[in-house]
## 1
Amino acid sequence: MSKLCPSAQPGMDNCRVLGVVQQDGPRPMLLYLNKPLPATDDVLAMAAPLKPTEVFRLSATCAEHQCPHFDGADCRLATRVARLLPPAVDALPPCIIRKDCRWYSQEGGTACLRCPEITTVTYDLSPETREVSGLPAVTER
Ligand code: SF4
């Protein structure tokens, strides 16, 4: 079976809600769903007026060669998440896609300990966030 991307976009194949982003702490934290919920138009519309990816984290079939993060073998986003971010939690979060997750299969529990703080859409363009996202650094003038 194809691997699942845990930071997917609406409209990708097999798109489901992985969790809901809790915004009431100092940083966004994902609350994982305990059963599958297809990311239908009706479900995604519940995020309005925010974008679906601001309210939900979505999983979907990994797009592999259609995704800029895929290098032909690995997800480079997962690599950066595992290498560059500190752990967000002390124990593996309850997650129903673990056996099929691209990030877990590649980086193991190291990815899971950082996963709850990942948001698919972010407006925090700190140097650290840009590096993890694979965005070019902004040079100060
Ligand atoms: S918690 Fe682990 S298995 Fe679940 S989506 Fe995140 S990286 Fe994948």
## 2
Amino acid sequence: MPGKRLKPKKAVNPSADAKRPIVVVGVGHMGGAIARGLVAAGWGPRLILIDPAIKSTDARAFTKSGAAVEADAAAMDGLTPEAIVLAVKPQLMRTVAPAYAAAARKALIISIAAGTPIESLNLWLGEPRAIIRAMPNLPASIGKGISAAYATPGTTAAQRKLAGTLLAAIGDVVWLDGEELLNAVTAVSGSGPAYVFLLVEALAAAAERQGLSADIAKRLARKTIEGAGALLAVTPMDPATLRQSVTSPGGTTEAALKVLMGDGRLETMLKEAVDAATARGFELAKTR
Ligand SMILES: NC(=O)c1ccc[n+]([C@@H]2O[C@H](COP(=O)([O-])OP(=O)(O)OC[C@H]3O[C@@H](n4cnc5c(N)ncnc54)[C@H](OP(=O)(O)O)[C@@H]3O)[C@@H](O)[C@H]2O)c1
């Protein structure tokens, strides 16, 4: 793909005790979040960020940290990166990945592309030795994400540790025993933020029905979910205990929870939603 080179290659990894670079391919929403997290953690001088369409303001900020910002895979000539994070859209992976096949022979490959099986990545990358598939989620953009990762048997403990460190730049990391579990992860934490946003919308709509103005309804709903999430983040209590602690017998919360929990209504809806998303993940994987 054509694009202008934003920084000359000689600027790559300029530190005297240069370690092998870490490459991020695709510096959009998620690749950009990873890159920003890594810069904040001091990895700037080891980063090569490749994206033909990176915003010039982002490029300037990255280069300031010591990272090299490049337009295409030609930047890889003669380099032996330690890891390559593939963060382009899944539908582009087939055309983008082959340009990294040579480097992939000696590098750890970390793909965050949704629904793109390792089998396909192997095909496009010419059977790399070490590959990790990870699924981050949207709060990664503020460093509060959670990524689930699966490592192929060809990865070393040091490579898994490196992947864990790189992904920690955008939040928590959990490891999976099987690649197929990534579809469930996508259905829970990948798509999950959308479920929470819907909850905010629905709560605001319900507030308006009770006569509150649209503005106040939106603020109440948004701040409630935001505050509850922030509380969850800092308390050692589990969600059920928290829920029980605000539910007085015969009170208002109990009246509402009887509606939400009666006949397992909310639980059934979420189960069906997660089942549908997981099934869709398996379907999509067949097309990639
Ligand atoms: N966003 C999420 O919440 C999320 C969550 C989990 C996983 N993911 C995964 O993360 C990946 C990226 O998603 P995203 O939302 O960050 O997409 P995005 O914002 O579109 O970022 C992808 C970037 O890659 C660039 N690109 C296109 N061709 C390229 C090439 N040949 N070399 C290098 N870069 C190239 C794109 O440029 P153009 O815009 O010009 O094409 C864009 O800037 C996807 O595979 C997705 O499944 C995303």
## 3
Amino acid sequence: MNSAEIKEFAQSLGADLVGIASAKTLNAFPPDPRWPQTPANISPHIKSVIVIACHIPVAAFRVKHNIAVQYLDMLVLRRMDRIAFKIADHLERLGLPSFVTAAQETEWDLNTASYGRLSTRHLGTEAGLGTLGLDVNILTPEFGPRLYLTGILTEIELEADKPMTEQVCIGESCSRCLHSCPTDAVLHFGIDKRNCGLEAQEFGYMTATDFFMRYIGENTKTKKEMIKARDVFGFWQGLLRVVGSFGDCPRCLAVCPVGNDYHAYLAEPQKIIPEKTPEKVAKAKEFKEARKNGEAIEGLNDWNIRWVGKEGYKGIVARQLQEFRQTQKAQATKEAK
Ligand code: SF4
Ligand code: SF4
């Protein structure tokens, strides 16, 4: 199978976006060379990575609470994994050795916090599906950051897609992700993973270890009270359905104005950001000034700019919005006839 046939097959199985990244490129450009997340560290035989993305249904971001997104996240991840496995299995049966990575899992021996053997957001950018935003989510022109990605590692040499050089993220003058973040975890094209984890993994690993560290030091009476705490229910629910221990906080995804799903269904309900504070506005302003003045910014340094978009922001979101409005207008005129 060639690249075009594989993409068609992946789409027929339900993948929303498909791209191909060359293993050679991924090996040469690990996201952080100190902890290289590369195909070569998994298998020396990998030649290409087929990257698929599945979007999170936009309706979930119109709901008053976070439960809908949390539950749908799990369903989307399972569906995406099944699609990826079917692709790998199909290639394998054709005599083309291929397998699926553990997309969201953390590798204990690499960097701290959520850090897998491959970074799916970087796979996506190398496969030409989007670029990294201010909050280092991958932003795709189609769905903004409201999606999940995984990779199928294959020993076939496939024609790779070209990464985008235009920055999809509007950048510092937007900063809506920063304004919305309940734990102020958004940095300048970077993320404070620990702060993000407080909301994004409410009952995740850190909460569990913190809880049990406190628990072992308590007397029997307090232990009996602690065991009935909401935390323990959260851990149980997380084990059962993963809900609560992963992908818990949808705020920076919900407010990001990239993607036609945003223009169609989120622009109105997400227009006002209740979490916005004067302090966050000042922080965004500092970021804007720093970039304008050419100050050293780690997220935009010579290494990292590759995934943000070397050309800078050229108005892709405004162009897309204009096209979207024209299509809507044409549709309305057609229906009126
Ligand atoms: S997921 Fe939530 S906590 Fe994490 S960066 Fe986004 S808004 Fe902030
Ligand atoms: S909300 Fe704005 S600044 Fe943040 S990632 Fe999206 S486009 Fe970029």
